[in-house]
Amino acid sequence: MRCVLVINPAAGGGLTAKVVGELVDHLRAVCEVRTVMATSAEGTEAAVRRAVADEADVLAVVGGDGVAHLAVQACAESETALALLPAGTGNDLARGLGIPREPVAAARAMAEAIGCESRRRIDLGKVAGTGWFATVLCAGFDAATNARANRMRWPRGQRRYDLATALELAGLRQQPLRVETEGKLLDLNATLVALGNTPFYGGGVPVCPGADPGDGLFDVTVVGEVSRRELLRILPTVRSGGHVAHPAVTTLRASAVRLGGDNGWLAFADGEPQARLPLTVRNVPGALDVIDPV
């Protein structure tokens, strides 16, 4: 079994040599490991694509959701299985797949799964004209918050997203949104829309709490027209998934979705910018092979 281990040493605020050594030791107990240190997005993208082109059996990546997103682009519709060793701030894909959110514990779980050949194929989302995503595609208020947080250099971690949320709330405006699925058409003024292949975004927020990456469908969450005060009431319930019961929230399930409307919204997927609406997204069943913790 050949494994390429791609490590972002700056992940998690900086991985120590001891932690890196433990990651490698766990994987070497069950497979042949080639280790690559990637200190930039460009270096990571090149490393993961090279691993798949070389037909590695397993691509293991250490980092946050940004690194996971690059690995998904490389592994999609290939025979190389993806093993996640989360070491970022959000770790939403790892959370959605039940992987321990500490890198050494994840390496131990991944090594055990590789040793007993525990893997599964999961669905991915495909954005027409751009790329793949594994977690959530969103547009509107939450995407604007994400974009603002990405521009900020202070504070770190979850507090950055909390501050970005507060700043976006100050200028809250609903926009026209059209959501088209196989059996439904919504035209409304909306605050946000989210398409979930897995439940979580933003560091563990279950915006699409029922999303299952093995059912061939997106769970779609649309928040309609609400006041700033009402949105402040809704936001705390999102942490528990209770927001889907609010009268302003509509939920759908679909294998393909077209998002439009005269809103100028920029969609984000896996926390990364994609394209401005209108855009079409489809669910591709079984597009990604992942190492499945036992």
From TrEMBL:
SMART domains membership: DAGKc (SM00046)
InterPro entries assigned to the protein according to its UniProt record, in alphabetical order: ATP-NAD_kinase_N, Diacylglycerol/lipid_kinase, Diacylglycerol_kinase_cat_dom, Lipid_Phosphate_FormReg, NAD/diacylglycerol_kinase_sf, YegS/DAGK_C
Keyword Nucleotide-binding: yes
Family: Belongs to the diacylglycerol/lipid kinase family.
Cofactor needs: Mg(2+)
Entry keyword set: ATP-binding, Kinase, Lipid biosynthesis, Lipid metabolism, Magnesium, Metal-binding, Nucleotide-binding, Phospholipid biosynthesis, Phospholipid metabolism, Transferase
Enzyme type, top EC level: transferase
Classification via NCBIfam families: YegS/Rv2252/BmrU family lipid kinase
Residue intervals of the DAGKc domain: 1-131
Keyword Cell wall biogenesis/degradation: no
Enzyme nomenclature, EC number: 2.7.1.-
Origin: domain of life: Bacteria
A single GO molecular function term of this UniProt record: kinase activity
Cited PROSITE patterns: DAGK
Family annotation (Pfam families): DAGK_cat, YegS_C
Protein name per its UniProtKB record: Diacylglycerol/lipid kinase family protein
